[in-house]
Design brief:
Helix 1 packs across helix 2. The relative contact order is 0.14. The protein has a four-stranded antiparallel beta sheet with strand order 1-4-3-2. It has two domains: 76 residues, no CATH class; 36 residues. The termini are far apart. It is α+β, with helices and mostly antiparallel strands. The longest helix has 28 residues.
């Protein structure tokens, strides 16, 4: 997916998540561009999620092209408008359920 940033991108970055997973972002074809008189960088970005493990950085560094190819293969095609609506409706429904649960706890706890 085409992305932009005001920071020059490294070939990959790993974000360790609290659930034991690692979000790995691969960047390639980094190009410096000027937008509104500011230096920006445009690049292709691919993201994958895998279980975090010791030695992950070294593994990706040693086998970078294989990891990049894998990430490219895992990148989902853009959702249609209908798919986006269904996904957003599901998020709204889940948020409403969570809000009811929170309100119930607040009422039962005498906070409101």
């Amino acid at each position: 997916m085409k992305s932009q940033s005001n920071l020059n991108q490294q070939p990959f970055a790993i974000n360790e998540l609290s659930n034991g997973m690692a979000e790995i972002m691969f960047c390639e074809n980094v190009v410096e561009i000027i937008v509104d008189e500011k230096t920006m960088y445009e690049f292709d970005m691919y993201e994958i999620m895998i279980p975090q493990r010791i030695g992950l950085v070294e593994d990706i560094t040693a086998n970078y092209q294989e990891w990049l190819d894998y990430a490219k293969g895992q990148t989902a095609k853009p959702l249609s408008d209908k798919e986006k609506i269904v996904k957003l409706e599901a998020k709204v429904n889940q948020s409403q359920i969570e809000n009811v649960e929170i309100m119930t706890m607040l009422v039962e706890g005498g906070i409101i």
